[in-house]
Structure formats: C-alpha cells, structure tokens
Design goal:
The chain has 231 residues and is an alpha+beta fold. The chain is 30% helix and 24% strand. The protein is built from 6 helices and 11 strands. Helix 3 packs across helix 6. The longest helix has 24 residues. The model has no long low-confidence stretch (mean pLDDT 95).
Length: 231
Amino acid sequence: MNEIIRKRKSVRKYDLTPLDVVTFDAVRAEINRVKPLYPDIKYSVEIVSKSKGLFGIKAPHYLIFTSDEKDGCLENIGFVGQQLDLFFSANGLGACWLGASKSGEKLESNLPHIIAMAFGKPAAPLHRELSAFKRKPLTAISEGNDPRLEAARLAPSAMNMQNWFFIATDGKIHCYYKKLNPLLGLIYDKMVRVDMGIAICHIATESENFSFVKMDEKPTRKGYIYAGTVA
C-alpha cells in the first residue's frame, strides 16, 4: 500500500508562518496537476489565508473548493481534494478537511462553495503509526476481496463515520454511500458524498489502471446509494 496512505492523519495544529515561495509554488503546481473524477464538471481550487465558519482551525493557508452543482460534483471535489491531502502529507505539510468552513476572503471563482481544507507546516506530529488508525473493520464496510479496499478503509471521513460500502467482484469495485435519514441528511449528506470521493481517491492511488464508470447493471446494497464503479 502507498506509504503515505498508511501514515497520513488530519493535522489540526499549525505553525502559522506562511509557506515560503518555493513551497507555495509547488502547491499551486500540484493544484493544476491533479485529475478530477469527472472531467466534465467545472470546479475551482483557490488558496486563501483566512477562513470563517464553525469548528474552524487556525492555519496559515486554506484551500477553498467550489464547483458547478451537477450530479457527482461532491464526489469529484472529494477525489480532487484528497489528492492534495496526500501531496501535502508526502511533502512535510499538514492538512485537514473543514466541512463547516468557508473563505474569509473574496474568491476569483463565482461557483458555489463546496468545502475547505486547512494546510501548512504542522505544529504537531505529521504522521502516525498504522496501529493508531481508528477505523471499522473491512468486513463492516465491504464484501469481496480486493487489496485496494484497505486503502479505502483508511481514508478520512466526516466525524470518522465511514458512511460507505464497497462490493469487490470480477476485478471491479462497486462504490456506495449511506442513505441517511432526513435529519442526519440535513447535516451530513454533502459530506457523505465528499467522503465517497475521498475513498475513491485512495482506491485510485492503489490502482495500476484506474477508471470510474456508472454501470447500468450493478449489485444493490440496502440502505446505500450507488456512486459508481472502479473498473
């Protein structure tokens, strides 16, 4: 498994010193380099130094993700953002998804806000041992056998709820997110779908050849909504 997936963690304490120009340029280059899950969905990733909202984290920089509101846009942002999360972790920087935060500055993009991510030099340990992960067992979130499922199991999710399920069969992984009750849906529905994209990103990282499609014929899973299939 990818070494960074095995040891990444969400960093919540930062050195508030802004990043140097070379590092900042590397971050901008990576933003332009990442690949979306759905290339036809317009989105934007901007860097700001101020955020606002509930449960905020003090950091020197934030990524603000905006997107056209189309089917799959939330999964797309999760997929894009997690590539950046892994990039940060691999290059000595910390990051943390912020589901309830928005930009504290005017953005260039006029697209609807989706989510934010804090990042910068960590003021706490950047990585952790595999044994420190608190995750559900594979049997609780999947059926079938595929070595890539372990990477999905280690993916971060809102409140660490892991509201996803995977069915591995014939070399494919069918991906599902949990159908929430109306009350929880008001709070977490957006994040459940962003989380789905995050987990798919981890699967993609472990895939020699990655493609993601929506199949007409696929297994069903009671209580879950089909997101697509890693083929």
